[in-house]
Amino acid sequence: MTGSRAEGSLFRVTTAPEPFDEGAWAEFLSKELGSRVSVRFGRARSSVLRVVRAPRGARGGRGELVVHMSEFFGRAPLEVRTSVARWLSAGKRARRSVRELDRWIDDELAREGPRAPDPQSLVTRGRTVDLAPLLAEVVAAEFRTEFAHAAPPAITFGRVNGRRARRTLRLGSYDPRAHLVRIHPVLDQDFVPRWFVRYIVFHELLHAAMPVERGAHGRRIFHGPRFRAREAAYADYERALEWERDHIEELLRRPTARGRASSRTHRPVVGALRGVQGWLFPR
Ligand SMILES: [Zn+2]
Asked: Which fold has domain 119-264?
């Protein structure tokens, strides 16, 4: 058992791994960690690899670990499996394993390519605003050159991934993998002016149009200096920030349109790729 905590030099490169299913993963990780682990494959790219502890068992002991992983982990070679085990037992301290895992995940996601949203799942027509013509309008007015040869993203109403912090509401997001802009259904209300929704659409399209800026250590900066400059040049920018300040409480108070067509029919097409999204209110 302890011998399996091999150092890098002992890694065997397995070229064509056999499919390693949920059961095999569970068995492997349980053995490596010395405690019961269960594994579930999923398709969401939002959580490529996530671990939770199940509620206490019947006898009150610590609940077992439940690891959710994208189904492409079924083709993970041995060294990747080992890295997962190390990450589970040491967390971020297992720096090298985390780095290797990151790299492998990036490669796998790139291999899968963009997952186009299912047009059937897109909800563009809200009660008060229709996102499709709005998107076309913003593209024509603000992004002539950027989307001259490349298609602009698709757009839909939909709950934006991520938690709702107390004074923060994420009103839009851009998902680069799906090439999809999501607009929060709370914006589909009478008191929200169309020009404000237009600003949100503009902001998310800007994420789609601009390459991600990089900071120290290659860290991604979603609202870098060039992004900020371009955003500040948007005609309604000041007015939109002001409107947001004045109405954020009201937006937060509203039940998030549960039961309305736009949210009822919305099923997240793909999740965000591990934080690769623009946050609208990061301050
Ligand atoms: Zn943003």
From this structure: Zincin-like (3.30.2010)
